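User: Could you go from structure to sequence for me? I need the amino acid at each position, not a summary. Structure tokens:
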């Protein structure tokens, strides 16, 4: 009798921890349930064009501390809107039926989709076509609703915190303002948590449009207190008062790139404060490298939980963590939404109470 077979695919921006999720899925599926596992390559693209690899126990070894994803991923591939060349003319085509055809060809009972907000929105549309899906939340942005944490987030916070620690010493030596620009798309979680951990004096996030004059005032206040340096961490999606919060580039591919706010901020602050301001854009260092122990544990928990959910017939759910407990949620309840930083939340209040400025 044919074995019960599941599929697994990694979509969207990569992050530390993806390979440890794949490892947990494969090991749980084979050891606990005797399932077969088929990996699809390069995100949803592999499902449209049938690019796959059978995953056995040997494929799952050596993955726990390996950054990236052995399956590959794509950040802007939507099976409902594929850019194709039709008689020399570029046009978008709905190729989502090919996803169902590929899964049927491989006799896949349920597909595990590992991704962030845009991936989960696409997964919800595939569910509406009758495809069984279990999702696992991953993104360094931590902006997936209904889960406290996404895979990759804490490792990116570690990376950004270490960068802030390094910037402190050079800022103090040169009496400069140091700006660290971090990723996070249209949410400020990376900036907020690394800013607190890294002792930033000013934390700028998309959720709080900043007043450049108040940022400058905080720098000068510190200078008058004898602190000739300041540390600013700014989310790539942050904007000054009066400007729209930038959209998440992974949702709409004709949106202007998010990065560059750090340089704009530096130029304006140098004029207003007459203090030297230098910029470091952390960029893809936040997406690379080995996962932290926290993310390895989170990946293992969510990966194993996803297979357990399939075994229990709990399809069309996302494996999630709430108050450190596994608590699956319906994909349809979170599709199309993002989790932004609550302005009245504990972290923002605590940061303010220790004197951090949010430029407001
Ligand atoms: O969503 C994860 C993320 O790293 C965002 O923080 C960032 O804005 C985006 O992906 C970058 O996308 P790409 O890898 O396509 O440049």
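Assistant: Here is the amino acid at each position, in order:
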């Amino acid at each position: 009798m044919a074995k019960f077979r599941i599929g697994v695919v990694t979509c969207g921006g990569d992050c530390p921890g993806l390979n440890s999720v794949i490892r947990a899925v494969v090991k749980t599926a084979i050891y606990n349930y005797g399932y077969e596992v088929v990996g699809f390559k390069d995100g949803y693209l592999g499902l449209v064009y049938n690019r796959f690899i059978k995953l056995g126990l040997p494929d799952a070894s050596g993955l726990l501390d390996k950054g990236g994803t052995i399956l590959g991923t794509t950040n802007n591939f939507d099976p409902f809107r594929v850019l194709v060349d039709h008689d020399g003319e570029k046009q978008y085509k709905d190729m989502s039926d090919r996803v169902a055809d590929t899964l049927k060809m491989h006799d896949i009972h349920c597909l595990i989709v590992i991704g962030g907000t845009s991936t989960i929105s696409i997964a919800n549309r595939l569910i509406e076509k009758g495809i069984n899906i279990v999702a696992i939340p991953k993104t360094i942005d931590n902006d997936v609703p209904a889960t406290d944490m996404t895979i990759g987030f804490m490792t990116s916070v570690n990376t950004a915190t270490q960068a802030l620690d390094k910037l402190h010493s050079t800022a103090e030596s040169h009496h400069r303002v140091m700006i660290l620009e971090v990723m996070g798309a249209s949410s400020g979680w990376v900036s907020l948590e690394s800013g607190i951990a890294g002792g930033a004096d000013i934390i700028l996030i998309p959720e709080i449009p900043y007043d450049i004059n108040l940022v400058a005032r905080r720098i000068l206040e510190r200078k008058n207190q004898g602190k000739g340096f300041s540390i600013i961490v700014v989310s790539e999606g942050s904007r000054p008062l009066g400007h729209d919060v930038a959209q998440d580039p992974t949702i709409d591919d004709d949106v202007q790139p998010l990065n560059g706010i750090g340089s704009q901020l530096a130029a304006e602050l140098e004029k207003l404060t007459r203090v030297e301001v230098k910029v470091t854009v952390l960029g893809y260092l936040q997406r690379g490298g080995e996962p932290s122990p926290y993310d390895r544990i989170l990946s293992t928990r969510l990966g194993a939980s996803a297979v357990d959910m399939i075994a229990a017939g709990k399809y069309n759910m996302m494996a999630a963590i709430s108050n450190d407990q596994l608590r699956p949620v319906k994909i349809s309840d979170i599709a199309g939404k993002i989790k932004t930083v609550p302005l009245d939340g504990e972290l923002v209040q605590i940061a303010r109470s220790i004197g951090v400025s949010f430029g407001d």
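One structural detail worth keeping in mind: The pocket of 6-O-phosphono-beta-D-fructofuranose is lined by residues 13, 75, 116, 139-141, 183-185, 236, 249-250, 258, 287 (CB under 6 Å).
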